[in-house]
Structure formats: structure tokens, C-alpha cells
Request: fold
Amino acid sequence: MDVTRPSRPHLRALGLATVALTALSLTACSASGSGDAGGHTEKTLSVWMPGTNQTEIDLVTDTIVPAFEEETGTEVEVTFVDWADISTKLNSAFAGGTAPDLFGHGPAAAADFVANDRILNLDDYVAELDAADRDDLATALAGGTVDGAQYLMPLSLQGYLVMYDADAFTAAGLDPDAPPTTWEELRSAAEKLTERDASGTITRSGFLMPSQALARQQSFTTLLAGEGGALLDDAGTKAAFASNEGVSALDWFTALYAGDDAVSANLGEDYLNAPAAQQPLVQGTAAMTVQSAPGMTQILAAAPDKDLRVMPALSFEGGDPAAFGGAGPGLMINSDTENPDLAWQFIDYMLSPEVSTEYTEGTGSIPVRASAVDSDYATGSPVISMFLSQTEHLVANPNVVGWTQVRDSLDKELEQALNEASPAQDALDRAAAEADKILSANG
Reply:
């Protein structure tokens, strides 16, 4: 479903037919006019933003965009598109010559857009930023590169850490001031925190890790990195996850839900996107859960009387701490736009210190600027301050052509292993063989 703001006439609804996701190579051009007889201002900019979060929609359309329009004399046409539809609708728009001047997407899609000449190389624009700005944005910028060149400008960082119920720790004889630092310690704590009814059914999970479609790939990546493994080889041309580290990580993941000593209930359930008031930590149906920064912020607001805290990134014994994350969704400039400089001006405005802080605070997300660690937003939030302190441990999916196909193939095999329909090694071997075919075809 698309989300538009009909109260503002320059926010357009999308009436585009969906097409296959593989149609990124469709030939077409797109342009926004600089003025017309229909009452438009001299400068018009079209922007598509992914997501249907009403808080973000209100902030962008009612506050940020009007301020940009006032400052620049530009009319900005903003459309919010559901994440599930953004790729197919962009493909359709490219085919019909109606693609926006700039659009938002996740980093995982950037390499495919680059391979099909859909987005502009932004290196020259980035080079014009002050050196201090580039340093301040360095962590985020790295996540928007493809083959060393900047194509996507992240608007926030993303990451997933473990949130836990301190009172549940105390009741189970655990020290809430000394939470687990390794996955082995977390498993041990989860066993003590898990509660069952008389029939043995889990009524409170000791620990929940995302296990639904696609999210389970992110969970696996966290565990794989914590074991010292990697998704792809250094060249990004072959799968590396069907390794001893990969098998160990997947076996550990599967054991959360499997057997008489399981510590997690409801395999495949999407608790991540449940309303805050229905979150397992709020309902008391879990004592520890992996969550995003915005999710944690909303949970704290929904349960102000609960003592909920955040753990730093964990590792397996002998490994380095790691958690899935890195550059969040960002903006890319359509290579066919007639207004590249104006499109960059909008990006530059969104990433300015004041507006960037306003945006991330309004959406409860992690700031892209390192200097935000000293902001009132960060210092006043135990969630944001913890995530900012852990940015060096965030591990992202690779930005290589064909990655989304590799991810989807891996995700299907992870589902088989998690449901004990296939041994971990077999599942990962099949996923790796398919990944190598995809990467070779796109190389």
C-alpha cells in the first residue's frame, strides 16, 4: 500500500502497475520539469521515500520538506511507498519514464541499480563536502559505496542488539548489571529465564532472535560474524558462509527453537514488527529479544514501568563482537534526472547536522553523524547512546550485484535448517552453490 498526503496537492499517489523485480535493466528515461504553465514553481523535485511509518511521513511532509521549499524556492513532490512495493514500482517507473529525481532504498539494492546505470555516481558531490563533514559521516558513507564509489547517501544507521528485562534477570538469580558478553553466556542465561507450563510448552522465551523470512538471514549474519566467518570472499565473487563457522552459527541458531531444552518459542513469527504494546518484552512472553533502535525506543515508551536495558554486541568465545547493521536506507539520484544539482541539494539538506538530528530523533533511528553522540538526543536515550557506542561492531550485507538474489536463496535454505528439515551443512552447501551461480552470472 502506498502512503500519500492528499492534504498537500504536490504529494502524488502512485498508479503504477507492478512488474517483475528483475526488470531493472528496462530502458527508459525520466525527468522532472523545471517549470510549467500549471502553477509549478520554477524548480520542481520529485522524491520517493520507502516505508509507511506515519511518524516519518508527518515529519518529512509537514516539517522538513516545507522548510526546504521555503529555503530554496523549490516545490518538492514526495511520495511514500510501502517497502514491499518500492522495487517493483521503481522498475515500472523506469520503464514508463516516470521515475523520480531521487529515491530512497536500502543499501542492498545499490549495486543492482549501478549495474543497470540507474543512479548517479556521487563522488564529486561528496568531495565538495567539508573534510570535517566527511569524517563525521564516514561510518554511514562507507555503507553507500559500490566498488569504492559513492552512490547512496544513508539517512540513518541501522542495527540490532539484545534488549533484556532486568527484573526477569534478578528473579532468575542473574545479575542485570553484568549481562552476557558472549553468545554462550546468553544461551546459559536464556535457559534460566525460559518458563514452561505443566505440559512443557514455553510460556516465556528466554531469548528471541528474528527467525521470519529475510530477518533470519540477518540473524544468521550476526552469528556468523560473531564466529569469525563471512558471507562472501574478499573479492565478493564467491560464497564463504558454507564454512565451519557458518555451520556452527546455524546450529546454534537452530538449537534456540529445537529440542526439549529449547529457549525460544514461535519459530518464524515476526515479533519485530508487532506494535510496541504487543512486543514480547512488554507482554512478558520473552526475557531477552533482538531489536532495532526504533523498536527499542517504542518499547520503552510502551512500558515505562519496566526496567529494560540494552546489551553491547556479543561474540562467540574467542571471537569479536558483531551485530547486523550499518548504513540504513538512504537516497540515490536517478541518472536520468534533469536536476542532479537540485537533487543533491536536497540530500545535502537532509544530512545537515540540524536536519539529520531532527530526522533521526523523530524516527527513533541511529544518527549518521558520529558527532551526534554528544547530542541531547543520544545522551538522553540509553538506546541510542548504546547503538552509537557499538557502530564499529555493526556488520552489513555486501553491496555486490546480485546480492538480493543471493540473500533470498540463502534465506530459503536457512528456513529448512531452522525447521530441522535439513542439516546445517547441507543447507549452506546448497545456498552457496546457488550463490556462486548468481554471482558468476552477474560478475
Remarks:
- The chain has two domains: 23-156+328-395, 160-325+399-442.
